[in-house]
Write a structure and sequence with these properties.
Number of helices: 9
Shape: globular
Helix content: 25-40%
Radius of gyration: 21 Å
CATH architecture of the largest domain: Alpha-Beta Barrel
Strand order of the largest sheet: 1-2-3-4-7-8-9-10-11-12
CATH topology of the largest domain: TIM Barrel
Bound molecules: S-adenosyl-L-homocysteine, iron/sulfur cluster
Number of domains: 2
Number of strands: 12
């Protein structure tokens, strides 16, 4: 608005119209004078966010969306309802105490930060796409609004968690990711304490993240996925650039809130990372960090063309028991939307999936 020669408070009016009223056309922004609306239109400005163009519904209530941007490229977002009082979609334990009688919806929304991903983790289907492009801040926040619209989510009434764990590496699109967070906090009214961002361990990104003020800082999850550097480098080539110790050093710079914990995500690959010795090694590793931490275990979800196997249920349980026995909180993330390829690491931009 300032660039258009208008006073700055016109920007506030515009943001109000876009993010609270969620107008779909310039004409609906009645707080702006008509001549200004006409001028913006003539200059080529348009109003609107990314659109849900396809919906896949799972029998467990999960929905996967293809969300389309202006250039026709699609990314995926996922809606995971939580009706059973169990863990939230970010793997944390349920927080029933915060319920109010008006709460109508409890769900976790997972959004993407890039079209594809450049990180090339060997077990992940998104990696197969390579990086197509970054999403803009509006496109990242817009996924959330599109899902809000679809489910009639009302901020303040409903309890919605947000995870930046869809397609892409948020910390390789840092500025847009953080701008989206600020939009969602300032304009939409979401709490950063209900948001979790997951990174494969991009150290410069984590260092910048550590400098963000808590009012705009989501919780942090690190995709550990291996008990040591040797295995991690095989699974996640990025580890040769930023090995575990470098990632942990960067994470230590984050000024955690009271009771806040760092999440270590750990994908269990049958025979490869799910053995009892691995569990003991992970327990030692996590304890050595000295961080208040918890571990989210994710049984590997299969995908076409990836030659790993899903761990046996007993191995998963034993792994969890070893961590818990060593005093490390560990949760098993229940796979969601497996029948529609919406589970972790299955977010490949396919319509056949
Ligand atoms: N790029 C970020 C965020 C998106 S991936 C990151 O890697 O952290 C979100 C989580 O899904 C990561 O912890 C990743 O390790 C996990 N994941 C990837 N592929 C998976 C698969 N096939 N099965 C289960 N989890 C997977
Ligand atoms: Fe990218 Fe995350 Fe998949 Fe690795 S696990 S390829 S960082 S989306």
């Amino acid at each position: 608005m300032v660039e258009a020669g208008e006073p700055a408070w016109r920007g506030k009016q515009l943001a109000e119209a876009l993010y609270r009223q969620r107008v779909t056309g310039l004409d609906e922004i009645t707080t702006l004078p008509k001549p200004l609306r006409a001028r913006l239109g003539a200059e080529g400005w348009r109003v609107g966010g990314p659109k849900i163009v396809q919906v896949f519904q799972s029998k467990d209530g999960t929905e996967r969306y293809l969300v389309q941007g202006d250039d026709g490229q699609t990314v995926e977002a996922v809606w995971m309802p939580e009706g059973d009082g169990g863990e939230s979609g970010d793997g944390s334990d349920g927080e029933a105490a915060e319920e109010t009688p008006q709460t109508r919806l409890r769900a976790t929304i997972c959004v993407s930060s890039q079209v594809g991903c450049a990180v090339n983790c060997q077990f992940c289907l998104t990696a197969k796409l390579g990086l197509q492009r970054n999403l803009t801040a509006g496109e990242i926040a817009g996924q959330v609004l599109a899902v809000f619209e679809r489910h009639g989510v009302q901020v303040g009434r409903d309890r919605v968690n947000l995870v930046f764990m869809g397609m892409g590496e948020p910390f390789l699109n840092y500025d847009s990711f953080m701008a989206a967070v600020r939009l969602l906090v300032t304009e939409v009214g979401l709490s950063p304490q209900r948001m979790t961002v997951s990174t494969s361990g991009i150290v410069p990104g984590i260092e910048r993240f550590a400098q963000e003020p808590n009012e705009f800082r989501p919780k942090l999850a690190i995709s550990l996925n291996a008990p040591n550097d040797k295995v991690r480098t095989e699974l996640m080539p990025i580890n040769s650039k930023w090995p575990i110790e470098a990632v942990v050093d960067a994470v230590r710079q984050v000024k955690l809130r009271p009771r806040e914990r760092i999440t270590f995500e750990y994908v269990l690959l049958g025979g490869v990372t799910d053995q009892p010795a691995h569990a003991r090694e992970v327990a030692r590793l996590v304890r050595r960090t000295g961080l208040p931490a918890k571990v989210n275990l994710i049984a590997w979800n299969p995908g076409p063309g990836i030659a790993y196997s899903t761990p046996k249920f007993d191995a998963v349980e034993a792994f969890r028991a070893t961590l818990v026995g060593s005093g490390i909180p560990a949760y098993l993330r229940r796979p969601r939307g497996l029948d529609i390829f919406a589970a972790c690491g299955q977010l490949k931009r396919t319509v056949e999936g």
